[in-house]
Amino acid sequence: MAWLRQNWSGRLVIKGVLHPQDAQRAAALGADALIVSNHGGRQLDGAVAPLHALPAIAQAVGSDMPLFLDGGIRRGTDVLKALALGARFVFVGRPTLCGLAVGGAHGVRSVLALLQQEIERDLALLGCSEPGAVDAGLLRPHPRAGRLQANG
Question: By CB distance 3.0 to 4.6 Å, which of 35, 48, 72, 76 could disulfide with 68?
Answer without folding.
Answer: 35
